[in-house]
Amino acid sequence: MIDVEVARTFLAVIETGTFQGAADKVHVTQSTVSARIRTLEDRLGQRVFARSKAGARLTSHGYHFERYARTIVRAWEQGRQQAGIPETFDDMLILGGQYNLWARFLSQALVEMQEQMTNVAFKAEAGTPLSLSRLLSEGLLDIAVLHQPRLRTDIAVEHLMDDDLIMVTTDPKGEFEDRYVYVDWGEEYRDRHAQILPKLMEPRTTVALGFFGPSFLIASEAAGYLPRRLVETHLAKGFLFEVPDVPTIAYPVFAAYQSESDTDAIQPALQILREKAAATLAGNLAPHFWA
């Protein structure tokens, strides 16, 4: 039988492309990584990596083993999580989401889950699309809600909604070009932005963490693209103003989850996410707590 740490190390070599990168990722020495891969190859009777000065790439045998390695690691993590469920609950759900999606949308969805799924314990995580996708593939998340999922054969992906990114400004008259801050929402957004507002592609300030956008724009008397969901309350209170005649940019939101998970809590949680997505599109989310 393949040890879980051997499988984890094998996957780390795939993700980093080198034995040294894998050593850094799993916090062991490079010689330990080499020994684990050698053990794996001895047990399989096949080479799983072709080594060169440029790094390590999968052989055909390694490619076919990858899915099983992910199953080994996922089964271990799910078993460890199930063993840690408090005695008063029957199941556990680990929900991850991009930072900006926790504002109003995921936070309210989690409240609904706690109210409706009374036999389930919960753990919430926040991160980047890359980190969330990695945690999901390793079995450390049950559901990841994000804008740019990484497609894998063992991961199911469902489109929940489109976040409408709208141009908002602190100027009541709607002026924005003299105070524009570029909020970087990802590659697809950059392409769309370049098409509709090419003159604003080289602003003085660029920020990558959109979840703190409203506070930053208000404090700096600036303008920028933010999700309507994130700024509805600020608009209603007069802290921000929507700029007229500037295109809205649709930014898809997806739920990615383990397609072969044994966790019964996934499907009811997905249904709640669907309902919250519908409420978001209808403008029926509860306002910010301070409103």
TrEMBL record:
HTH lysR-type domain location: 2-59
UniProt keyword DNA-binding present: yes
Pfam families: HTH_1, LysR_substrate
Keyword Phosphoprotein: no
A GO molecular-function descriptor: DNA binding
SUPFAM superfamilies referenced in this protein's UniProt entry, alphabetically: Periplasmic binding protein-like II, Winged helix' DNA-binding domain
Keywords: DNA-binding, Transcription, Transcription regulation
Record PANTHER family: HTH-TYPE TRANSCRIPTIONAL REGULATOR HDFR, TRANSCRIPTIONAL REGULATOR
Similarity comment: family membership: Belongs to the LysR transcriptional regulatory family.
UniProt name for this protein: Transcriptional regulator, LysR family
